[in-house]
């Protein structure tokens, strides 16, 4: 093709448009414009595209490349395991060393009574698995009607039929209309209603009200992210998670923490729930468990759930070909070793302060920047027409998109959360190895 005068970049773009249907992308725009960036290399918090331009990866790609790009130790761990035993099944009682060692390690890091892990290949599978484990647990406890799952607005739990149904962002339901009846959305979130304040005007949208309406006998679990990512960087206010956990306990409902983004240091604690001393019954992890170097997820479960499940004397008909993938688990082990060795969680806490300084500067110098927020290195802000009067931009103005576009021209990749009309949120979540100088830049 080069001899015919077509550059490699143009060739790739044409092939991409023709053969590759992209996830969470506007197909019509993609067919017109082609790929925005074709990534080719990465180093630390920076990535290079195929033209040789370098960008700061301000969102760790999909909040997952936590140790940054080009981490050779992770690559070496993968190579070592791949050349020894790349893959081994965990079905039918088979096992492998990296899967066992990683299970022990993750459980040792996890809060409270979380005592075993069920492996998956990613976040959606983890949440689907958590839902199934919750239902099965109640089934084994003689309560087979406890099947429904409550999730909240602006949540993102994945894109499979199960996890996608729990996702509380409407845009993810217009695709193939996944919104079945066993997952109920409590419309409001992060309010005082959960601690029992029925005078709160949002009461009818609360989880508490939803439990009253549906009946706790029909509900298996409540699922929640400690900090909502894709839905717009919403940090649970102090006391909220604890109130929801207590509410669940009072009603014999399991509490699932979706730590797919928050887990493994992102919030300045090893797990997001630790910011509020909450121990969930089930905890979904993925992304940061390998820093994105290999596809892996898992669900941690309480001792009570584990002990109930291990009494089951028939086949537990659930699992994925890549559950307990040796190479992925070897990468996960190395990833956790580096997180501890290099005091990554501590760095995240320090960088939160640097980010907040930057946000203060933005607020002082840009009248549209408001509601800046950060917990560790998951952070963001809103853009509003009039922040003092709390007036959003007119829906015709895609302010967050415009800002992200300008940043992109300046070689900084950010993310917007503007699935809902009128919302203009910028998300910033750089790799956890980010330095003070990086943040200043
Ligand atoms: N849960 C949360 C909080 C997420 O942010 C994501 C993905 O962004 C998922 C679940 C789904 O994970 P995956 O895309 O690996 O299936």
UniProtKB/TrEMBL annotation:
Keywords: Aminotransferase, Pyridoxal phosphate, Transferase. SUPFAM superfamilies: PLP-dependent transferases. PROSITE patterns: AA_TRANSFER_CLASS_3. Pfam families: Aminotran_3. One of its GO terms (molecular function) is transaminase activity. Gene3D superfamilies: Aspartate Aminotransferase, domain 1 (3.90.1150.10), Type I PLP-dependent aspartate aminotransferase-like (Major domain) (3.40.640.10). InterPro entries: Aminotrans_3 (IPR005814), Aminotrans_3_PPA_site (IPR049704), PyrdxlP-dep_Trfase (IPR015424), PyrdxlP-dep_Trfase_major (IPR015421), PyrdxlP-dep_Trfase_small (IPR015422). It comes from the Bacteria. Belongs to the class-III pyridoxal-phosphate-dependent aminotransferase family. This is Aspartate aminotransferase family protein. It comes from Scopulibacillus cellulosilyticus.
């Amino acid at each position: 093709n080069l001899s015919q005068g077509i550059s490699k970049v143009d060739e790739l773009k044409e092939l991409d448009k023709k053969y590759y249907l992209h996830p969470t992308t506007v197909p019509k725009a993609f067919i017109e414009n082609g790929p925005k960036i074709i990534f080719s290399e990465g180093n630390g918090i920076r990535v290079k595209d195929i033209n040789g331009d370098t960008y700061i990866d301000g969102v760790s790609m999909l909040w997952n490349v936590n140790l940054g790009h080009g981490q050779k130790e992770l690559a070496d761990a993968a190579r070592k395991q791949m050349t020894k035993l790349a893959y081994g099944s965990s079905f039918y009682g088979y096992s492998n060393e990296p899967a066992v060692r990683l299970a022990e390690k993750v459980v040792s890091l996890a809060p409270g009574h979380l005592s075993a892990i069920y492996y998956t290949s990613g976040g959606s599978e983890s949440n689907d698995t958590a839902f199934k484990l919750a239902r099965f647990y109640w089934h084994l406890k003689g309560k087979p009607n406890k099947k429904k799952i409550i999730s909240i607005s602006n949540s993102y739990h994945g894109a499979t039929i199960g996890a996608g149904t729990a996702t509380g962002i409407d845009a993810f339901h217009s695709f193939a209309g996944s919104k079945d009846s066993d997952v109920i959305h409590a419309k409001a979130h992060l309010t005082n209603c959960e601690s029992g304040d029925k005078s709160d005007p949002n009461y009818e949208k609360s989880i508490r009200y939803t439990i009253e309406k549906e009946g706790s006998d029909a509900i298996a679990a409540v699922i929640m992210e400690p900090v909502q990512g894709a839905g717009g960087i919403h940090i649970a206010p102090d006391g909220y998670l604890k109130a929801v956990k207590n509410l669940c306990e009072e009603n014999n409902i399991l509490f699932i923490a979706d730590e797919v983004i928050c887990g493994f240091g992102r919030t300045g604690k090893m797990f997001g729930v630790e910011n509020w001393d909450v121990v969930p019954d089930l905890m979904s992890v993925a992304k940061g468990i390998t820093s994105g170097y290999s596809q892996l997820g898992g669900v941690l479960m309480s001792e009570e759930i584990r002990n109930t499940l291990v009494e089951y004397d028939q086949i537990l008909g659930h699992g994925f070909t890549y559950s307990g993938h040796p190479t992925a688990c070897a990468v996960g082990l190395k990833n956790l070793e580096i997180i501890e060795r290099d005091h990554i969680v501590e760095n995240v806490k320090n960088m939160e302060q640097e980010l907040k300084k930057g946000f203060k500067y933005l607020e002082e110098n840009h009248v549209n920047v408001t509601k800046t927020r950060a917990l560790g290195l998951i952070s963001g802000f809103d853009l509003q027409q009039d922040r003092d009067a709390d007036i959003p931009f007119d829906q015709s103005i895609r302010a967050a998109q415009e800002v992200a576009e300008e940043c992109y021209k300046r070689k900084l990749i950010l993310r917007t959360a503007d699935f809902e009309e009128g919302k203009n949120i910028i998300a910033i979540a750089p790799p956890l190895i980010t330095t003070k100088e990086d943040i200043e830049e």
